[in-house]
Amino acid sequence: RSGQRDKALETFAACLEDAGAGSWLEKEILSQIEKLFRREDDMAGLKEYYQKLVEKHRHRAGLQRAMARLLMETGEPDAAIAAGRALMELSPGDRAVREEFIALLTTAGRAADAIPQVEQLLKQKPDDLELRLSLAELKHTAKDRTGALAELQAWQKSAGPGEATALRLAGI
Fold first, then answer.
1. pLDDT digits (tens, 9 = 90+) for 35-67
2. Can you tell me the distance from the alpha carbon of 77 to that of 100, in angstroms, rounded to the nearest whole number?
């Protein structure tokens, strides 16, 4: 607040060194760094600063996640997807990370690329009815009407008979 942004960034970087990866402290440090740049509407500076941090701390999933969001926000979907893929490599079995990557692909208009990611989640959780509906929606978006219909039929079979199932299916 006193206009000593460089000193603040230096202090945050030192704190990040000591903070555990994925900890609440790491999240707070990244949030404060982002506030410094956003206060001055310096998205290019934030991107550059994050790139330096990512090079130094490749193992920090939170940093990769923040970078991917920033790249998507600044209109760089290809770079954001690359950052999302790097995040997936850090946490290959983490469902939340995969779901974020799916959201990133969907936001970038790449439903066809998101389909295999949802299918991978379905292999891990075959009874997850909401995932099946998400897959049907993605297939519909990707113009795979037959695949979307097949997913809806599989969902209906898994959901079982009943009024709630019929109403939900009718709504879809």
1. 999 988 999 999 999 999 999 988 888 899 999
2. 14
What sign results for the dihedral spanned by CA atoms 107, 111, 116, 122? positive
pTM score, whole prediction: 0.80
User: DSSP readout, the chain?
Assistant: --S-HHHHHHHHHHHHHHSPTTSHHHHHHHHHHHHHHHHTT-HHHHHHHHHHHHHH-TT-HHHHHHHHHHHHHTT-HHHHHHHHHHHHHHSTT-HHHHHHHHHHHHHTT-HHHHHHHHHHHHHH-TT-HHHHHHHHHHHHHTT-HHHHHHHHHHHHHHH-SSHHHHHHHHH-
Structure tokens at 165: 């199932």
Amino acid at 124: Q
Largest CA distance in the chain: 64
Pick from 63, 79, 78: which is nearest to 31 by CA?
A: 63
Contact 46, 66 (CB under 8 A): no
Q: What is the CA radius of gyration of the chain?
A: 20
pLDDT of residue 67: 93
Tens of pLDDT along 75-124? 999 999 999 999 999 888 889 999 999 999 999 999 999 999 999 999 99
